[in-house]
Amino acid sequence: MHAIHYLCGNMKSTALHQTITLVKKDILLELRQKYAFYGILLYIVSTVFVINLMIGKPEEKIWNALFWVVQLFVSVNAIAKSFMQENRGRLLYFYSLVHPRSFIAAKLIYNILLMAIMSIITLVCCVMFLGNPIINIWYFLGVIMLGGISLSLLFTMLAAIAAQANQNAALMAIMGFPIMLPLLMMLSSIARSSFIIVYQPGLPKLFLMMGSMDVLIIALSMVLFPFLWKD
Amino acid sequence: MAKHWWKALAVLILTYTIIAGFTHKIPIIGTNGQSSRGLYFHVPMWVCMYTMFTISVINSLRYLSGYDLRKDALASAAGGVGVFYGVLGFATGTLWATYTWGSTFTSDPKQMLTAVALLIYMAYLVLRMSISDIDKRARISAVFNIFAFALLIPLTYIIPRMVDSLHPGSASTPGFASKDTDNNMKMVLYPAFIGWTLLSVWIFTLVVRYKKLELKNIFK
């Protein structure tokens, strides 16, 4: 709990400072417990292994679809935990110390980092178990980073809402999946360029849409989270 | 009685819309045939849905600025009526698509994204049901409602205009402009917008009265 004590000593610190400290706290907790990390790791490996047992090495279109479905469930599982580990007492403690905006910013940054690592692990697992149909690996890495960021931003906001509604996991699915759908559709069509050499006319537009969606979600989280936290 | 003239107006206009809409002469173009009459029922549903969702999000914003539960009742009533009109719009649209595009569910982006937007709003209604504490329900669902509205506009209005779609007004198809819509059809279409919107507001006021009765111990 060094980080929290550290936080205590800096009550008048700036928003940026608070955010960085909270991110450090989350990383420290994760490094100590390693609960979320290994839990998700096991989840990824077993999911991909099951797919391998069922269909062996799929062709690139199915590979792409399966990859994004795995990513979706990994992000739901990884990020739903981000508010569950905070019990009421600790949340109240944070509430008295930091501005809610710093708190949500810290959660967003931490989840982006977590999701970036998870995306790479999923990619490695998929390549190991399901074969490697990717031609343009750097492009695909970029796309999964973009996808990881978008997924984690969205699910952080939804987890914050679900956390207020008695940590209801089913609620997270109900709220999250319709929003997820267009995002995943865009991601899988952006990713297509890394499997086959093909000219996709609307590609820059799709990147623009993804980017603006991310900006929209960040802005909404920043504006709306303080209202969620007034308990 | 003076307060209720618009309800009579709604009934009159809708009677006119339905009778004229099914009987008057319309241009028969290609695969559209007589199904163009769907215009008087399909498009106004979306106008009503957007009206209701706009009322809903404005009341959610007002709730968050003052924490007045009456505003939450307005927001939830408008959300419910909006979903109802959205479902009607989707139903009339799929009916039209069945005969004009040859399939009830095409992979048309506007159709798919509208279904997604409706699911998001249904999630709003489910979210409301899942929280029993009234103040907490109001606060959290207001936040989600604003979130949903911010996604509704790009999903149903911006993205379908940027990509290829079977709907008019997308990247590759011409939009409905006042200059290329038949004059005869405009005579019914514009009153239809007003009539259906008035009806949606009427339903909305009834739902609001019901919600307020439910909570009358709190409002007093």
From TrEMBL, chain B:
Compartment list: Membrane
GO CC terms, sorted: plasma membrane
UniProt KW Membrane keyword: yes
Membrane topology qualifier: Multi-pass membrane protein
Alphabetized UniProt keyword annotations: Cytochrome c-type biogenesis, Membrane, Transmembrane, Transmembrane helix
Main location: membrane
Segments forming domain Cytochrome c assembly protein: 24-161
GO process annotations (BP): cytochrome complex assembly
Parts of the chain that traverse the membrane: 39-61, 73-99, 111-127, 139-159, 188-210
One of the record's GO molecular function terms: heme binding
Record-linked InterPro entries: Cyt_c_assembly, Cyt_c_biogenesis_CcsA/CcmC
PANTHER family (alphabetical): CYTOCHROME B_B6 PROTEIN-RELATED, HEME EXPORTER PROTEIN C
Entry protein name: ABC transporter permease
